[in-house]
Amino acid sequence: MADIILDASGLICPMPLLKTKLQLNAMQPGEELEVIATDAGSARDIPAFLKLSSHILISTWETDGCYRFVIRRGS
Prior knowledge:
This protein has helices at 15-25, 42-51; strands spanning 4-8, 32-37, 56-63, 66-72. The model has no long low-confidence stretch (mean pLDDT 97). The two termini are 20 Å apart. The protein is globular, with a radius of gyration of 11 Å. By secondary structure, the chain is of the alpha+beta class. It is 28% helix and 35% strand. The protein has a four-stranded mixed beta sheet, covered by helices on one side. The protein contains two helices and four strands, in the order βαβαββ.
């Protein structure tokens, strides 16, 4: 279970990614964040951002247009 849940449902690009970045910056290394988004662009944008960062994408899945990401904050 994630330490923090960020509900970005209903927000359109680039807001889910920006809110994810801000929340990760406020967290401690090792803490986990679950992001919930409904914007299809998030399925591309959030994993692409994480590949360029020290954060780790633990899991991602999509159900009925709802995208969920579990991210572990890096150093």
